[in-house]
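Supplementary notes for students who missed Thursday's class. We covered one full example, reproduced here. Read the sequence, then the structure, then the short commentary at the end.
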Amino acid sequence: MDRVLVGGLDFNCSENVIGGMDDFGAVTRSYNDRPEQACRPFDEGRSGTVLSDGGALLMLESEQSIKRSCTVYGEIAGFG
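Structure (token representation):
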């Protein structure tokens, strides 16, 4: 294939997951008044994790199929 659109989704924010993570103390509560500072995984002052959902899409194209002006952000050099 010359072009392939690929994507993925991680959906963790359900009642069961959030409740379970909170039950064993993994969810931060220290920054409820400052939510923009809550996510700090590598900080000494971290107090737990912040749960969220995420997703991404990538357009994969063969080198020969790129006939337009675009920025190439990476190259797949191999797979297994």
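Commentary. The CA atoms of residues 3 and 52 lie 30 Å apart. DSSP finds one helix and two strands in the chain. If anything here is unclear, bring it to office hours.
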